[in-house]
Amino acid sequence: MEEAKFRYKYWRPAVTVDNVVFSFDGTHLNTLLIKRKNEPYKDCWAFPGGFLEEKETLEEAARRELKEETGLAPKYMSEIGSFSALDRDPRGRTISVAFASVVRPSQTAAVAGDDAIDARWFPINEMPMLAFDHEHIYRKALWLLRLGFMNAPIAFVLLGDLFTLPEMQRLYTDVFSRTFDRRNFQKKFLSSGILTPVAQDEEEKKNPHAPIYYRFNEAGYKQFREKIMKI
What we know:
Elements: E1 14-24, E2 29-36, E3 45-46, E4 49-51, H1 58-70, E5 78-83, E6 94-102, E7 116-123, H2 134-151, H3 154-159, H4 165-176, H5 182-190, E8 195-197, H6 202-206, E9 214-216, H7 218-230
Parallel strand pairs: 1-6
Antiparallel strand pairs: 1-2, 1-4, 2-3, 2-7, 5-6, 8-9
């Protein structure tokens, strides 16, 4: 005899996922937004996302929606949290679980698709008005990004393989919304062992204005973290 399916007697809300994706272009920290094709909030800017399907996990749904709406597929995602304000979605009671990710400079090509009519990177200081409660989601994502900068080498994913100290300082300025003294900033990182200078060619050595590029030193970072943990 076929077993009867268990049925909940409780009401169940809809579940959605949202994606906050950060990138850095050498000058600004940026966030990826899509312009919505459909109501509610048609033609408004929002984070890429959509409804959870029956046979997928939350992260699988987040990855699928991000890929469908922008073409992006970040290697790592971190859950930001759940958002359940009673009036957050005019279609009815909807709970969203949001995810954050960062992409390297070479991975920022985004193409609108599915429910998006446009996909665009916005500098975090030039964000448009957002649909739903996405402003609240964004603020939490940025706060967690700041925490991540202090506990993991996230900055070097955003900077890419090669970067200059001025670019690095601009990134930190955007993330932490504050200015840093140039000498102190550079002294701190150059003495940490985290950065490895890239050798200049003969022409660059002759040019006093040629930029000096650096790479992230993973071994140096691990040693730096170990020293901090022993304090």
